[in-house]
Amino acid sequence: MRRRPTHPVRALAPLVTTALLAAAVPALAAHPGSGGDDAARGSHASAAPAAQATRGRITLTPRAYIAGETLTIRGTVGARGSRPIMLQRYMRDRYLDAERGRTTQAGRFGFRIPGPGMATPYSVQLPGTGLRTPNAPVTPVEQTFSFATTPSAPRAGQAVTLRVTSAPARPGRPLTLLRRTSPSSWAKVATASADAQGAATFGVTAAAGDAVYRVMAGAMPGRGISEYPSYPFYLRSRGSERAGVANAGAVPVTPGAARAPYTQPGPVNAGNTFDWGRATESHEWEYGEPLGAWREYGTGSGRVAPAYAMLTVESGPGFYGADDLGTTRATLSGRGSAYGRWEIRMRAPHWQDGPDYRVKAELVPAGTAPGACSPHTVTFADFTGYGNSVDLGVSNGSRAWAHSERGVVTNRDNWHTYAVEVTRNRITWFVDAKVTATLPGRAAVSGKALVPRISLIAPDDTTQMRHTRIGMDWLRSWGLERPGSAAAGQRRAPQPKAGRDLSC
C-alpha cells in the first residue's frame, strides 16, 4: 500500500533573488474572491473574503495556468523595510497559511508555488498589523483537445492527416497519439512536439468502421505539469454507422424532490467523526497530480482524468453533439487490504438528454479484471440518475445482502461522503458520517484483499447516454489499529437484507 502523502497548502521556497525582486510589478486591483461555475468546477469556489485593509500590490503569473504548473507571485507590501510576511490562500471561509517569507528593504517579495486546481485567491499578510495585499486572482484552466482530419470522411485504407490541438498551448510539450486496442489498453502510434498553437499532426490510415484514438499530453517536470489524456476520438471511415444519436438537448427539469434539500457533509466525514486517526493512504488531485496507480477501463467515449481538482470519471467531452457511450471505470491498482476502512467524497452531476448512467463506488478483489464483476464485492454507493436514496451492500460468493438508504439526495449540487469498515466479523457502512447499515458475522466477509473502483455503467456500448461526470474529491483509507467510536451507531443501524446482489 502506498503511504499517505502529505497534502498541505503547498508552496515552494520563497524567491528572494535580486533578479526577481527587482522586476517591475504592475498594479493589481483587489479581487473579492474566487469565481467559476460551481457545478463545472466541482463546488470548490469560495465565498468572498471578509473586508480587510489592503495596501501594496501583488501579481501572479501566468494568469491562466494548468493545475500544478509553477506560478510566480511578486509584489510589494507598500512600505519600505525588511519585515516578515505570510503568503495566504483563501479557501471556503478563511485564510490559510501557505508560506512564510520576508520582504527586501524595498518592501518587495516573491514566491514560487504549484498552481492549485481550485480558483482560490492568494494574498500576502503582514502579521500583527491587520493589513494584507489585495487578492491575486487564481485562474486554473482545464486542458482540452480538438481533433481534425484531412480528408474529413476518409475511405477505409485511405491515408489520413490527423491534427490535434491542445489548449492551453505549451509549445514543446510532447503529444503522443495512442490507439485503443482493448477497453484497458492503448497502443502508441507516434509522438510529436506541440507547436506555438499547441498543435501537432500525425499520419494514420483509416480502418473499416471505427478506429479509436486519443492523445496523451506529456509531463513537463520543469514547469510542474503532469501528463494528461484527451477523450477518445472516433476516426470513422466513410459509410461507418455512428452509434445512436449524440446528445443535443438540455437536461429536463428535475423533480423538486430530487433537487432539495441542498445538503453538504462539508469537512465532517466518518474518518474524523469516528476517530479513525491518520489515514494510511490518501488520494487527492488538488495540484493536477497524475493518475498514478489508478487504471482506466473504457468501452466508449468516456475518460478518467484529474480535472477540476478532483478525479473525474466522465462519459464524454460534454459539448452538444458529442458522444456519451459505453462504460468507464477507475480502479486503484496494488495489493489492497482484506480489512480496514475506506471513505470517498463524491457527487455525480449530469447534463443533456438520454438514459441515466448507473453510478457505482465499490471495493473489488485486487487483480479483478478491469471490466469484470466479482462475486466478492463491497458496495459503498450505487444509484442511477438523481433521486433520494442510495443502495449499498456486499456479495460473497453465492450470498448477497443489500440496503437502500433513503434521504440521500443525489443531484447536480450535493456532495456526499460514503465509507465502509470491513473487519473479520462485521461490515459497516456510513453515509455523511452516519452509520447507515451494519452486518455482523463472518458470512459476508470474504477475507480477500480489496481495492476501490469507481464506475459509470451503461447498458451497452451503442446507446447514447445522458452526459455524466463522477467527481471524486478525495479517497482515504485506514487500518483497524484504532478502535473508532461507531459502536453506538452499529447497535441502532439496520442490517442489509439477504438476497439482493449489487455486484453486477
Automatic annotation (TrEMBL):
Top-level taxon in the UniProt lineage: Bacteria
Leader sequence residues: 1-29
Coiled coil (UniProt feature): none
Gene3D superfamilies from the UniProt entry: 2.60.120.200
Name used for this protein in its record: Glycosyl hydrolase family protein
Keyword ATP-binding: no
Region called Disordered, residue ranges: 31-54, 485-504
Family annotation (InterPro entries): ConA-like_dom_sf
Keywords on record: Signal
Biased composition (Low complexity): 42-54
